[in-house]
């Protein structure tokens, strides 16, 4: 202001001097608007005027103007108000050069109005075609713009060659059709940082939303996302993505918050049903000034900030995250998708599918097909049926499979460094988590690796592992197996011969165990009335040899036998002829009597029992 005043004083001084000179030809010309603005240090105003082609000349050519000229500080405040970094950014936020020209024209009245000419209340039509109000009181002149903002004249009556300049302390705003923010800009302005992070995490979603012709967005607050994290037991957005089934389901959740049409709150009926970008419906209700949104699970969120207009629609800020039907796979579908066909066969064979599908919450450590192949090799089994036989039957298969299932949900992010879980088999397994991955240790101390973690399913989670976990399997001893099969005569004979300890202590054996009827048939053939008569007739040593002839000191399941006849050594010191024809097995004694295996492959803790329908006799 002092520069401008000095300019005017110096001009007046020279005007006086020259008026006394005989060479004087007329008054010294007043400065142009731009010259006066430069002299007064209004550099931002000058830059703005020159940013509009032809505007400087237009103002210069006006016959009479009054300019309300904002200071540099006024422009700096305007940058801050519009969130602009510089004049170019301000132009962009105003909607382009045309709107800047409107703003600048709003500061110019096409007439000369010195402060002394002002009434107390004045209305002027500007070059922008809009009116502004100027009030003059003793010692003060103010200007009110279209938005009701009041600027103070800080330096009045700076005369220029075609009018007058009044310096003001703020930029005046006319009515402008300002560009509406994009969804991203509106969310940023509202502080919805978690929503923005989530949208960015889905490749291409931000561009899809920005380019959509019309959208209504129900935008959850950061607090709403925080509450959703707690519900899912997730510490951050990445964990939440894992627990809802991956980025595809995150896209489904976010799409469930977007309606492909514009619906301001005033457009709503009392009850509205909208199909979202996820293809699923939400219910929006309006009661008075309250708007609520209900998701597929019946959860309701409230609109806490309505009708935020954006370039291609409207945003309503809500206080909850809406959940669609995520349509997570069940355990069977997840196993099929992962190619775990052997596991599925085993679950089907053990009739566990229903139990797993109907469980409230499960964590499944699911072996790969290669893991099952390795288990078959370890048990010398060619297929699942043989494996079932070697581990002791279907109940033990159920125990093995149940040992892979924890009746609770444990994503990898939920794990501590060391965890102990009680499985459906009733036995514990140890799960360790470290920076290098997750491992699982079974009852025998074998450790396997999780090779694919956190496959979300409808009632829990699946972790794919590279080995089959083994619980402690409860196989019967030979006495318990005979009791279970009701082979009472055999047990009596073994007891009478004192062979119980020998059988229990045998390292490995195959027992061909005669049924009770088989013993009755032998007694009848020998015209004997009881086992004791048989013992009395043959003697204990002979009965011991007979029993030993039923025992092979090695483990041979039926599928271990070669096709055809084979001689196998027995505890009696003589070979027994065993013949396999397909799935049928027979035994032939020293006298050529042949009997059938009627129940094969009863696993015991030190071998296997095959129940036969006759008593085989050695050479006596």
From TrEMBL:
InterPro entries: Adhesion/Biosynth-related, FAS1_dom_sf, FAS1_domain. It comes from the Bacteria. Residues 29-172, 179-322, 324-469, 474-616 form the FAS1 domain. This is FAS1 domain-containing protein. Pfam families: Fasciclin. Transmembrane segments: none annotated. PROSITE patterns: FAS1 (PS50213), PROKAR_LIPOPROTEIN (PS51257).
């Amino acid at each position: 202001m002092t520069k401008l005043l000095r300019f005017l004083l110096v001009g007046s001084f020279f005007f006086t001097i020259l008026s006394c000179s005989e060479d004087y030809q007329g008054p010294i010309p007043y400065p142009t608007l731009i010259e006066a603005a430069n002299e007064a240090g209004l550099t931002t105003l000058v830059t703005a005027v020159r940013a509009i082609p032809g505007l400087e000349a237009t103002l210069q050519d006006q016959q009479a103007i009054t300019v309300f000229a904002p200071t540099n500080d006024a422009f700096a405040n305007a940058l801050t108000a519009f969130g602009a970094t510089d004049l170019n950014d301000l132009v962009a936020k105003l909607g382009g050069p045309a709107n800047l020209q409107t703003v600048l024209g709003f500061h110019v009245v096409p007439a000369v109005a010195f402060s002394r000419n002002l009434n107390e209340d004045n209305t002027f039509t500007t070059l922008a075609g809009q009116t502004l109000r100027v009030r003059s009181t003793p010692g003060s002149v103010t200007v009110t713009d279209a938005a009701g903002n009041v600027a103070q004249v800080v330096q009045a009556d700076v005369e220029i060659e075609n009018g007058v300049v009044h310096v003001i302390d703020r930029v005046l705003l006319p009515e402008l059709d300002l560009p509406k923010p994009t969804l991203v800009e509106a969310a940023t302005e509202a502080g919805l940082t978690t929503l923005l992070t989530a949208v960015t995490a889905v490749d291409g979603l931000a561009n899809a939303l920005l380019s959509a012709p019309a959208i209504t967005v129900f935008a959850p607050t950061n607090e709403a996302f925080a509450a959703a994290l707690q519900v899912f037991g997730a510490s951050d957005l990445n964990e939440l993505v894992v627990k809802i089934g991956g980025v595809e389901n995150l896209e489904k959740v976010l799409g469930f918050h977007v309606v492909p049409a514009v619906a301001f709150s005033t457009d709503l009926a009392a009850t509205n049903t909208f199909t979202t970008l996820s293809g699923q419906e939400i219910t929006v209700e309006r009661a008075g000034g309250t708007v609520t949104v209900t998701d597929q699970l019946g959860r309701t969120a409230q609109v806490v900030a309505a009708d935020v207009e954006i370039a291609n629609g409207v945003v309503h800020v809500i206080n909850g995250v809406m959940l669609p039907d995520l349509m997570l796979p069940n355990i069977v579908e997840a196993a099929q998708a992962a190619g775990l066909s052997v596991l599925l066969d085993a679950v089907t064979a053990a009739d566990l599918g229903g139990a797993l599908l109907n469980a409230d919450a499960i964590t499944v450590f699911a072996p790969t097909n290669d893991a099952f192949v390795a288990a078959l090799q370890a048990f010398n089994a060619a297929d699942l049926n043989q494996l079932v036989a070697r581990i002791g039957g279907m109940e033990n298969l159920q125990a093995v499979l149940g040992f892979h299932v924890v009746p609770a949900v444990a994503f990898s992010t939920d794990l501590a460094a060391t965890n102990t879980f009680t499985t459906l088999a009733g036995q514990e397994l140890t799960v360790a988590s470290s920076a290098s991955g997750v491992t699982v240790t079974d009852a025998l101390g074998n450790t396997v690796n999780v090779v694919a973690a956190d496959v979300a399913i409808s009632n829990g989670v699946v972790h794919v592992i590279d080995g089959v976990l083994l619980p402690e399997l409860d196989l019967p001893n030979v006495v318990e197996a005979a009791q279970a099969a009701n082979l009472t005569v055999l047990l009596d004979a073994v007891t009478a011969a004192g062979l119980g300890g020998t059988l229990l202590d045998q390292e490995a054996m195959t027992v061909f165990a005669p049924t009770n009827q088989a013993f009755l048939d032998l007694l009848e053939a020998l015209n004997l009335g009881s086992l004791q008569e048989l013992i009395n007739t043959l003697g204990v040593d002979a009965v011991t040899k007979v029993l030993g002839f039923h025992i092979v000191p090695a483990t041979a399941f039926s599928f271990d036998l070669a096709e055809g006849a084979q001689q196998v050594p027995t505890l009696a010191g003589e070979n027994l002829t065993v013949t396999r024809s397909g799935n049928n097995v027979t035994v032939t004694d020293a006298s050529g009597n042949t009997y059938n295996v009627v129940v094969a492959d009863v696993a015991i803790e030190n071998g296997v029992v095959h129940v036969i329908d006759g008593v085989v006799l050695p050479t006596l």
